[in-house]
User: What shape does this take?
Amino acid sequence: MDSIRIVGGKRLVGAVPISGAKNAALPILAASLLADGNHVFRNVPNLRDVHTMTRLLDRLGARARYSDGCVQVELAGAIDPTAPYDLVKQMRASVLVLGPLVARCGRAVVSLPGGCAIGARPIDQHLKGLSAMGADVELRHGYVEVTVPGGRLRGADIRLDFPTHTGTENLMCAAALARGRTTLTNCAREPEVEELAHVLNKMGARIEGAGTSVISIEGVDSLHPIEHAIIPDRVEAGTFMVVAAATAGDLLLRGIAFEPLQAVIAKLREAGVGIEREDDGIRVVGSHVIVPTDVITQPHPGFPTDMQAQFMMLMCLAKGTSRITETVFENRFMHVSELNRMGADIQVNGRTATVRGVEKLQGAEVMATDLRASASLVVAGLVAEGTTYVRRVYHLDRGYEHIEKKLVQLGAQIERVPGDA
Ligand code: UD1
Assistant: This one.
């Protein structure tokens, strides 16, 4: 498996284009199952998870092709609504095909995603919603089998126990073709949920309220294919903000708006980082003094759990002690032991990590079992003294397009090392 080799200590300066958002592309690709015909999606990031989704769509009977930032999905004829374990285990977000399949085919057989590195991550809320819409749900041999008597879901009032992100997306897709009106309460408010609603409406759906905690969906009889460009990735942008902050650099993040990053920007400003709007993006100027800053992760519009590892890495360099509390996932601190191996001083007690700032980090061989944890280790390598090897690059490739190429252009000394070198 490839590694990333980084020689730390460079100040990073320049402009970086922000890629299309993984977490917007995946549900949109899955939603294409709702309409026959030819869909064209642009600004799709070249990521392992995107390729897993196109393979899954192929397996279901669609024809999905990725080429140069564009995915074409052709749907004509029969769909086999079975999502097999070998693909679902590679990417938990495969569960996003569940809602579209049930809506389109009146049944679906989807492998349970199982445990993953950042906690148990059940899908009970997705299933509760489908049951309320009239589906029969059974768990058999590691698969969830959903059947809709009569073939078509019916609208329902559904209150989610937790504003689950992919759960809200699955239920929105399911309700789009249901008979009658569905009201989803306590929904996820992430920008990607709003984007999916926008896409579904472009396809002919009737959805209101996405981006708030109550979404109302008037089911329609059919949807049509569309052309659409994916929004920029706020987590990639947030990660580059931390890169600028940690290296006392000066970066222009091209193509990203302020609004989806408000919570991250507020915390980085509290930490002493300079952040300004520019005509074509956001400029981030790091300071040599990082102010210790406490963070509690929360569903949007709170501080995103997907930025927790990167922010914690930055706090390792602060002048004092910070507390980082993770409330969204129960086990999302895998980066802590690796950062400590690089000389950080972090102690975890339950859901809170206490981070005492240190003078410097030291290069080391590290690895992580999660996408954002891996990103935090790459940023750590950029500021550490000496050489860092980040192993299991597989995780980074799931969510960061051309990360080492982008960093090299900003002045980093970073390269991909093939195999186990
Ligand atoms: C999505 C994002 C992921 C992000 C996460 C939280 C995608 C493809 N992935 O993941 O990057 O980290 O949101 O912002 O968009 N839960 C239940 N029952 C359910 C569903 C969720 O208990 O039916 C729990 C989970 O175990 C977890 C919490 O709710 O503790 C949040 O999960 P959720 O919002 O569903 O995350 P994902 O949609 O999987």
